[in-house]
Amino acid sequence: MKSKIAIAVLLLLPISGQYAIAEEAVAEENSSLTVSAELGMLFKTGNTKSGDIKAGLNIKHEEGRWLNLLTFNALAKKIEEEDDVTGEDSFESTDNKWDILGQSNYSLNEGGKNYIYGNAFYQQDKFSSFSYQTSASIGWGRHWWETETSSFFADIGPGVKYDVTRAMPEKDTDMAILESSETAVIVQAQALYTKQINDFVEFKQYFVAKQALESDKNSVYKSETSLTTKLIDSLQFKFAFRVDYDTEVEEGFEKTNTETSVTLVYSF
User: Which domain holds residue 119?
Assistant: First the structure.
């Protein structure tokens, strides 16, 4: 039931774009819409060893003082597994991870640096110890600086996080550990730094922390570093490295997972 509520919250957010914080702070009278799609390969370490196909859709909508962002990502995996009979390694294809993130920012004054935001996130990942994870946050943000070649944006606010741990067989027994859930009050902080190295190459560093206020609750930290090269006006080559860290996971699962991806990004 709570997962359905979380999805509903996301779908009710206005159409939005690539990251959880504003990449641009221009409040325009005319509405503008930017859409980009990406497709490519991803190599993953941590809980699984795999070669994956990554696809994503990013939407950004600006109108007046509003900036709305939406990102959807999905992974189609080939997982390395050992055959029980032959003992040889083989790869099994399966779709097992997707997430959706939305955020709306409202500038407090025309062309100003300060904004308020609302943010929601939902993720399903078959190979983590969680059946799904979702969070929502509201707060204040600021465009700390913005020049022709670089910018830095950050926001912070209170929120709530809801994690559901998947049912797992208990080690060395025939018993099963039932699915469990955990709700935690969090402080969420996000930051995005961008640097236009030249006319063709752009660097981005994004970071988000969801810090639980209780020490025994799971906190989440995510970082993505990317380098994008323009091939033509509407086509880009993107290299990205992502780190996901959960402070509390079930036995047998890694706390840290990394993703290294190479994708083509088409904007229209």
Answer: 2-267
User: Beta-carbon neighbour count of residue 259 at 10 Å?
Assistant: 19
Question: How far is residue 129 from each of residues 77, 133, 179, 183, measured CA to CA in Å?
Answer: 17, 10, 10, 16
Q: What is the pLDDT of residues 133-168, one digit of tens each?
A: 999 999 999 999 989 999 999 999 999 999 998 876
User: Tokens 């209170």 appear where?
Assistant: 158
Instruction: Give the CATH number for residue 160.
Output: 2.40.160.40
Q: Which residue matches tokens 């699962």?
A: 253
Residue 110 per-residue DSSP state: T
Burial class (CB in 10 A: 0-12, 13-18, 19+), 83: exposed
Split into its structural domains, the chain has a count of 1
Token pair for 211: 């810090």
Global pTM exceeds 0.85: no
pLDDT under 50: residue ranges of the chain = 2, 4-5, 7-29
Tokens of 253: 């699962």
